[in-house]
Amino acid sequence: MTTAEAPATSPLLASRALHVTFPGRRGAPPAQAVDGVDLELAPGEIVALVGESGCGKTTLARTLLGLVRPTSGEVSFGGETLDYRARALKAYRKRVQLVLQDPSGSLNPRHTVYDAVAEGLRIHGHPGDERAAVAEALSRAGLRPPERFFLRYPHELSGGQRQRVVIAGALVLGPELIVADEPVASLDASVRGEILALLLKLRDELGLSALVVTHDLGLAWNIADRVAVMYLGRIVESGPVEDVLTHPQHPYTQALLSVLPEADGEPVVLSGEPPDPSRIPSGCRFHARCQVLASGRAEEAGVADKCRTEPLPVLPAHADGPQVACHWAAARRVPRPGGPQE
Amino acid sequence: MHAVRGVDLTLAAGQKLGVAGESGCGKSTLALALLRLLPASAHLSGEILLDGEDVLTMKWGRLRAVRWAGASIVFQGAMHSLNAVHRIGDQIAEPLLIHGRATPAAARKRTAALLEQVGLPAARADAYPHELSGGQRQRVMIAMSLACDPHLIVADEPTTALDVMIQAQILRLIEQLVADQNISLLMISHDLAVLADTCDRLAVMYAGRVVEEGPAAAVHTAAHHPYAQALSAAFPRIGDPASRRAPRGLPGDPPDPARLPTGCTFHPRCPVALASCTQDDQPLREAAPHHHAACVHVSPAIPQGVSAP
Q1: CB under 8 Å to A17, separation ≥6 — which residues?
Q2: pTM, whole model, 2 decimals?
Q3: Which residues from chain B sit within 8 angstroms of residue A242, using beta carbons?
């Protein structure tokens, strides 16, 4: 599935034209949770997928994990298209591990730390020394000495320690990729930094890639290489963290950054809730809430009609620089003579 | 177990005070104690003066009158604080009716006005909590807290479970309502940046005690106590090269209130602890005018504070 645009290193994980649609309840129109996403993750890369709740970021993550089958489009891992037969999926889930938000919910309260970490090994039939593997995973996750934690139960641990146990459980199978859904949202402020530092350390030591799903832009700034901003089932802006977070092009990204407590300038508080994925607006999907359109700046740039009527193409999965799906941002960019600017 | 150990705070009328700290530091216990909402097994000592009246020694009837009308609380999880089987309009009207402030018809009218005040259409009064989004539910909680025109609103993590955009909406709403009606605000959160943005003064709690207290901006950007410094570094400022690919946290975990460390309770996690910190607990010292911190490194002689390197 390589195209002419593919980067030098082949991606570890890639999605192509991914769509996930859930049937509507009681005659409601179907919800297009993921509505055309091309995304790539290079080996050893940390990508943050950010957006409000309901934007489809969790569904996208679950689809990439093979937990949800896409309605159309495909997921590929290590260059091979994901196979949804049971045996192939089981093998896939050894290579890709999920870490969830609330460690208290992901750990069985009646299993000891040892059992929680060893469970994956037992499911996948670990040939070697189980005890040594568990000990190594625990110490990699920062629980040292590991033997001291073997027989503890989740309720005896602090929130940060529990999240480390969850991460150890993910590490024990030697995955190539971790998908973490809000990994620090339920942790205390002082512990948060330690867990994020752990993810960075694992990348440096093991070359572990990570896709971090979050609504926390500070987290992306802290650990990610690239960031993808999702709105209503589509990635609307993506690129290196420095570019996207310090020079956001899309009005939605600009608004998200402007409401952070320490942001400079006047906050742009978008009114209302994110719109309904079963009724995606025509034209640019953000136009109904767009502050640039509402303030008339899009009109000045001569793109207001386009914003309301002309849908935007899906952003390509990988490019060197930042990319944005916005008529206004495209119009503001001075076209290079001789061709459209990347 | 001592959840809150000797906290002195004052909040002037119309002022906004933020209390920051991690889970288990006693900040929610403090909020509940303010209105005597703790279980009967809790032992309270000291004084809680609300408009000069001690809440702790109040008679039951007076206490009931003060709750909602003197001070009201906005709790964290709006889904758990609202009754799932009652319409939200009835829940907002409930304190009005109980306090005998309105007839049922007047209460309905007031409910509609309150809903509009918090940015919800009055027709939503007929909705059940599950029909609302998280942000809308939090708006209902705020409408409820305003129902009896309190002088003080205690907001316990009012935006914690919400998205950034909804959080911004709710914070603006709280700020605007508090400013318009000259209500005092005591806001509790773990996010120092949010508090610094909303409040006039900030108090940072650790293990049941205030370890730093001062003007909001100063506590946030130029903290003296190493714990307060760590807390403000925990949420990075985007664009700050120092925090890029460098998440900062504190080793260790918040202490168990049942087994507090000796001396300064922060010493096991403190990067600048001295040998004496294991023995001597530090009182709040003046670090700058109107700014206090409980750390051995804070010396009153040097106004700009030296503290941690």
Answers
A1: A36, A37, A38, A72, A73, A74, A314
A2: 0.86
A3: 244
